[in-house]
Each structure stands twice: as C-alpha cells, then as structure tokens.
Specification:
heterodimer, A: seven-stranded mixed β-sheet, four-stranded antiparallel β-sheet, 11 strands, 55% strand, B: mainly beta, six-stranded mixed β-sheet, 0% helix
C-alpha cells in the first residue's frame, strides 16, 4: 500500500512569489491535514480537509490556503511568499481521523 | 487551550539500555488521544505509539511503552533495549477529538551511544 506522497520534495522560491504544494493521501483516506515545521516554532497545524471541505484551520494568515479534490488529493498554496515561510511542510492523511500517516514533506526555501 | 510540553530538549542513552522521555499536556476534554511520533533525519514522521485517554491500561508496542497518568496529565515514553535506529527526534502530541488538529510538543532529540 503506497504511503502519503508529497511533491515536490524540495523547492526554492523568491520573496513575493507564490507556491503550490501537493499531497496524495493513502488510498481510502479522506482526511488530509497540513503542518508547518520550523526550528523556531516547531510543528504547527495549518488546516485539515475532509471530503473536499476545510473543517479545521490553524492560526495562519490568509496567504496560506488549501483545497482538496474529489480523489482526496490536496494542495496547499502560499501567496506572496515571505522569508519566514521557509519551512518543512508536512502532509498527513487519516482513515478514522485519529491515526495520522505523514508524508516525507516538502522543504520550501524562500530567498 | 490545548498544550503539550516536553521539558527535555536532548537525551542520550547507551545502546541496549532503557530511556524515558517525558511529556506533560493540558486539555479541557475528558476523552482525547495522545501520541508519540518519531522523526529520524529523513524527516519522515512515524507514529510510535498511541493512547486513548479512556483506556486505563498503558499502551505498548514492542520495545516502546508509555506511562499514562491522566490525573497528572503526564504521558512518558519508555524505550527498552535501545537501538542505534532509535536515534531521532521524538514528539509528544495530543488530539482532543477525531479529525481535530494534532498539537505537538517541541520535541526531544534522542541520541543512542554505541
């Protein structure tokens, strides 16, 4: 059974640009969550989607957005990138909403 | 507010020995979930063990076991017979309800000395 797949693995962007990250959950998992991991703030919850609906959202500015497609794949978008957005972005999927399986993350560097 | 605290930024253990990682949490719920995740240098977060708060019995998974003290809001992880592959960052985490956000502690970096 394939795990959670995140693409791309690494990304370098310039301040002011926008970026889209992709996450394919484990087959059959309908819940997808996104987290930002930085050395200073640790792991912080961004948002969670279930059946194409955002049900939970963390304390991030509106520049961070996401969506989920009918096949449960999810995308996360960050507009007007800032240096502080440099982080490891982790996606997790869940079958029953409790046990989360994580992808390997996308390392975003903003220069 | 839901919080998770790990007071040990770094720990080390001799190979084959036992180590205990500490975690305290705070929640207003009576039923919730607690987890320990492992993040090796590859950055892949791996679930080590989970505990449902309504279960009094401490969870165990092979060499990993927890000491869950609900009244004290304490959730420590014991690793027995430590192996080199156990070296990683360990995160304690809590979740108040199914499909809710998972709150992570700051992590404990575990080194295993050969």
């Amino acid at each position: 059974k394939a795990g959670v797949t995140q693409t791309p693995r690494y990304l370098i962007k310039t301040r002011g640009q926008q970026v889209t990250l992709s996450c394919s959950p484990i087959s059959g998992h309908r819940s997808v969550s996104w987290y930002q991991q930085t050395p200073g703030q640790g792991l912080q919850f961004l948002f969670e989607y279930f059946s194409e609906t955002q049900r939970n959202k963390g304390n991030f500015p509106g520049r961070f957005s996401g969506r989920q497609f009918s096949n449960s794949r999810s995308e996360m978008n960050v507009s007007t990138l800032e240096l502080g957005d440099s982080a490891l972005y982790l996606c997790a999927s869940s079958l029953e909403g409790v046990e989360a399986f994580f992808g390997q993350g996308t390392r975003l560097t903003v220069v | 507010a839901q919080t998770v605290t790990q007071s040990q930024p770094e720990m080390s253990v001799q190979e084959a020995e036992t180590v205990t990682l500490s975690c305290t949490y705070d929640t207003s719920e009576s039923d919730y979930y607690l987890f320990w995740y492992k993040q090796p240098p590859s950055r892949q977060m791996i679930l080590v063990i989970r505990q449902e708060a309504y279960k009094q019995q401490n969870a165990t998974e092979n060499r990993f076991s927890v000491n869950f003290q609900k009244a004290a809001k304490s959730f420590s992880l014991k690793i027995s017979d430590s192996q080199l592959g156990d070296a990683a960052m360990y995160f304690c985490a809590s979740q108040e309800t199914s499909y809710d956000k998972v709150i992570f502690g700051p992590g404990t970096s575990l080194s295993v000395i050969p």
